[in-house]
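Sample intake — UmuC domain-containing protein
Collected from: Streptomyces capitiformicae
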Amino acid sequence: MIAMGRRILHLRFGLPADNDAELPERLRRLLEDITPRVQMIEPDMAVLDLTGAIPYWKRDARGLTELVQLRALAHFGLPSSAGCAGNRMLAAMACALTPFGQRTVIDDSPEAVMAFLQPRPVRELPGVGAKTSAMLGEYGLHTVGDVVDVPQLTLQRLLGARAGRALHEHAQGRDTQVVDPTPTPASISSEHHFARDELDPAARRRVLLALADHLGARLRGSGQVATGVTLTVRYADSSGTRRSRTLPEATHHTMLLACTAYAVYASLGLQRARVRSLALRADALRPADRATRQLTLDSADDKPLAIEAVADRARVRYGRQVLYPAALAISSPPPSARHQDGGGRPKDARGRRAT
C-alpha cells in the first residue's frame, strides 16, 4: 500500500570539481520531471516534496527516491545520497548520515521517528551550534533523547523563549518548513559611485556601512541570508580589485555584514588609493529559516539586532531615509547605493532599473 502522508526528499549530489556552471539548472529541470515542488538549496543539494508525486508514479517513498537517484546518475553521472521523511528537518538529518549511492527512508510512525532521532547528538538539530551544544552538555543533555523529555519551559529558561521552543519542537521530530520551489537569486549586490575619486578612508568606511545596511535590509525583507560577501573596489585608472570572504555564520544582519566588509577592505591596504566606486555583494543566498545563530551570553550583542528590527519596521512605513546608522549621519543624505540581483540589471535604491 502506498503511504499518503507528507513525504520530503533531501538529496545531496557529488558534483565534480570542474562541473559545468549550467549543471545545477539542468539538474533542477530533471528533478521537476518527478515533482514540480523542487527547491535547490545549494548547487549540490535539493529538497523535493514527493507527497503529490507518490500516487502519480504509483511508487512508495523508497521506490520514488531510488528512481530520482537513478535518473541523476544516468543523465549526469552524479552519485547522490538521499534522506526521505515526513518533514524537511528529518529528511536533511537522514541525508547527512547517508553515504553516496544509498538512501535512508524514515517511516511516518512516531516510533520510527523517535528511533531515528533519540540516539543523535543534539548538535545535529537545526539551530544548535557549538556553544548551544556545549551549554546543553553542561546539564547532561547530549543527545536528542536526553532533550526530548525536558519540559519546554525549562529549555526556554536555558536558551530563551524562541530558541527553547524551537529546540523542543525539533527534539519531538516536528518541523513546519515547506518546500518552496520559487528560485532565489544566487547573490545580490549594492554599489556606490563617489562624486570624485575618494582618498578619505573614513568616507569609504561610511560607504561600506551604507552598502551593508542596504544589503541587510534587502536580505531581511526577502527572507534570505548570505554565507559570504564580495567587495569590489574600482580605482581612478579604471582598474579594480575584488576580494571575497566567507561569513562566520550565514546572516542577514547589517552588523555582521559590515564587520566582514571592513575586514576585507582593511586587508587590501588602500590608505592612499584613489577610489572611484565600491560594490558589496552578498553571496550564496539561502532561505533564512536554514540559518543558525551561535548562542551568546552577552546581552549587548542582542541590542543592535533589536534596533535593526525597529528600523526595518520604520522604513517599511516611512521610507528608507527615515532611520539609518548614526555613522551615516555625517553625510547627508546617507551614501546612496544601486543594487542588483544575481543575473539582473542594476536597480537604484527605490527598485527602479538603472540606465
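Post-analysis note: The first strand starts at residue 8 and ends at 13.
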